[in-house]
Input
Amino acid sequence: MRPSSNRAMHAALSGWLVGMLAVGPAAAQSSLPLRLTPRAVPSASPSSVTVVAIPLDATARTEAARLAYWAEQSVARSGRLELVRLSEALDVQGKAEREAKAAEGAQAMKDGQAAYDELDTQKALERFDVAAKAFEAGDLSRGFGDFVRARVMKAASQVANGENAAAQLEIRAVLAVDPRAQFSSNFFPPDEMSFVDKERKAALAGSTVALTVRTEPVPAQVYVDGQFRGVSPVSLSGLTAADHFVTVMAPGYELEQRRAREGETALTLTPSASQRALQSISERIVRKPDGAERDVALRELGALAGVSQVLALLVQGGTGSAPVQVTGLRLDVTDGHNLGYAVGSVPVGEAMATGSDTFLSSLVGADTARLAGNKPVTHFASGGSSNRKTMGYVLMATGVALLAGGIYFGMEASSKEDDFRRAPQTSPRAKDFKDTGKTYALVADIGLVTGLVSAGLGSYFAFASGGGGSSPAPKASAPPARSRATPPPSKAAPAKSESLDMPPPPKGTKPVSEPLPMPPPPAKTTPPPAKTTPAPEPAPAPPPPARDSKRSRDEDAAQREEELKKRREEVERQRRELDERRKQEEAEAERQAEAKRKRDEEDKRKREEEEKKKKRPSIDDDDLRNY
Output
């Protein structure tokens, strides 16, 4: 009969074998959902979407910015999605200031209209003038129509006050920037309406001025007098000889606006607080435009912009006037589900307005259904990497099971050998022990060899950095740590990974994690099949790396959260500094205005005293004698 220690060891090995078979497939999936979820976006509406166009080469920069504009128009026309301009989402402070100016202008227009209806035309003139200035200080790419209406009502108030000359100057200035501005006969008498018609014809006939708009350091969307005129550099002709209102904007930069006349005007864009984060995300997408890292970066961008969906357009430039190749996808920020996906070519230049309509409509027209089990749909060129890693874990579990089986049958063969030695050599029982022992020994050898091969292959597939045959990622700021979080691993070497780069990476960012440890192959500790004492030693080898792997993932997750927290604090600090600097500038401007007002009052008082002295009658000698 076998010793009790052998039976206990066999029971322990059997339990461990069953546990490994149960844990193996689960381990293949345990690491997938830990790194894909970006920070929550509770403030975003369920259907808010922002558009980002990323040029994959330098020749596509201008066309990418142009395509982003037409994509925004397509989203707005769809009526099912709420458009959030990326340039505004990444410049929260500037957007708030412009919205405040727009609200101020709308309130002044309301007050001016009420005063005009009550025949208080002097107050109406003042309020309409305030409204025009507020709209001009806001975003004229959106509010140019309100700005023109405020100036038209200002002219109407001047007519009502009898200031006809000033009204005609205002009418001429309005028609110079908007020859199609509407003037109602309810506010303007026939003489003024005739003047409007004459000036309108003169403005349309005299539109011969040329204007060129350039921007640095990146191409930007250009609006002139509230109309989109292309992507910088833009050369325009057929303008009137007057001050025109130029507005330029680009994602990651503050909106710039100024008046410009004939000739060339250059505007330098100021980076916003989120410009570095956007640049880092764009670089990661350019490196792997067809990999899982693309969708991870887009989800980070959506979280940074505070939207629930991102419409991304990856633009590959053509030669000359050849169409550009575009990969478009509309992505759910929550889990990376591709709501829309299309690949095609889009004409360049002015033809893009109509030539891109079908392509863009396919991205925003309807949502792609999810897979069974509410799983997201993705489009990766190297999608087999996820299966590769899963297969690696399964092979590792199978290899461990085979090794355990080989050890078990080796122990059985050793036991049969002991029984054979104790039994009479000529008895049938001894022959049975001998044949059974040989069979067990053969099975043990096969199990050990195949287990070693299976475990080795599984370790390679699960932990090696091949990533399904993808090419090595270039240096720069590629984040290998994040690529382990996505289904297809995309690292090219087992080097230390760098920190997550969303939001903008602070200076001096250091690596925060290391690759998952490679479990030691059991081959080095496999016992000989004829010995029983060293047999249990290799069995417990695989579990420690699993615990280390889990602990490493937990540490990575905690480190990433800490990095994200620091970066959010950095962004908030920059915004607070910007806000404080602007408040100081406003306070300084108010102090200067107050000092100027006091100086003007003092000068006025002195002039009045001098005038009184001059008007005081002089008393001559005759007046004194008569007195």
